[in-house]
């Protein structure tokens, strides 16, 4: 049994709790939140606390807290030389106080409270300073049935940047598309199969090879009509920029 | 039996042929291509021709050809007053010569030859000038088991614009993300579950509500680090523009 303590009760902490709770190889020793009311509902199935001084001994302490609190909370931990990891995509391993053994346990996924998630489909990015600690993290990943990758802090920063493009920015493109369909009284649902297929293609083709549309064909008539049709100047600018990026890339390819 | 003639042997024409071929309610009378070698392989199962003068009588003629050829080909058809539709997202119904009964049969999906597709998952956008013609198009959609929508040419232009955002531009974001991961020797596969979940969310939440990330949190430290990390100036500009669009929208919401 791997003894785990979770610190933090946000989306990541809550999803981790649910993934660990039903796992026979993992024992959740405690769940810490600075605000007990967030986790009170789980007090029947796990020991909860809002006091760092009450933290018990565990194999690993997982800090699933805001990026900006990692440094402070890790330095307030009332023990040393234990394995402490954070779950942030953008903070270095050195953000953790070095009085404990620092590590990273970063689930690369978008979490929201409303949305149930199959934890086994989440890739885990792991980092540590010793092979013994790395092995413990790998054991947790394996027992959760997750794919895992050894990713350095420098790589993780790049990966987080790439994640912003594929998740945050992509989602904003969907928002713009919904604005366009709403304005014309078109049901946004019509676009959903196209969106799903756009993603399915990356499992079969390099995205560069999968590129289609007026930009890649340099279909100036359609491009100009589209720019005219867009109402906001920012959207016109975005359309022009994306079109020129796609078009340049295609010329590179030829 | 609905008698259909397909004109064109590109991706859309080929996928239509495959969808119609196994359908007991549809009879493919002929398949026309100006270049017979594109469809020669199907000559055992369908009559093929490269001569407009050889076209037989059918209930509907579906022009699955380049946008720029629609007007010319439709005016060269050696008959009048028959139902002729095109499959383009961006061309008006009036692009078709009015000597025949004009209509639209636009499958809103991204097609590529390499990628098999479940035709029943494709929404069909239909338009015509008479209810009789519309009913025939609806019958085809129903027999294919497809969702269909009556969409005017004006709406279709907007829908096509929205499709460019969710498909072409989204795919280019994936391309940029792959560039970033490739440069840092990170396996692009790590991002695929995140990409899938980004899309799954639109089935549950309005994309505006699903927005997460440094832009929405106005996390300036991460944003500046990301802009610094990007190598190309165009990508920096894109990052800034998307970030400001997401951030502005969030302020509107509050």
Task: Provide a descriptive summary of the structure in words.
The structure is a homodimer. Chain A has two domains: about 1-150, NAD(P)-binding Rossmann-like Domain (Rossmann fold), CATH 3.40.50.720; about 155-254, Orthogonal Bundle (N-(1-d-carboxylethyl)-l-norvaline Dehydrogenase, domain 2), CATH 1.10.1040. The first copy, chain A, is built from nine helices and eight strands. The first copy, chain A, has helices at about 10-20, 70-75, 130-145, 155-185, 190-200, 205-210, 215, 220-230, 235-254, and strands at about 1-5, 25-30, 50, 60-65, 85, 100-105, 125-130, 150. Chain A has an eight-stranded mixed sheet with strand order 3-2-1-4-5-6-7-8, covered by helices on one side. In chain A, helix 8 packs antiparallel against helix 9. The longest helix of chain A is centred in the middle third of the chain and has 31 residues, at about 155-185. The first copy, chain A, is elongated. At the A-B interface, helix 4, helix 5, helix 6, helix 7 and helix 8 of A face helix 4, helix 5, helix 6, helix 7 and helix 8 of B.
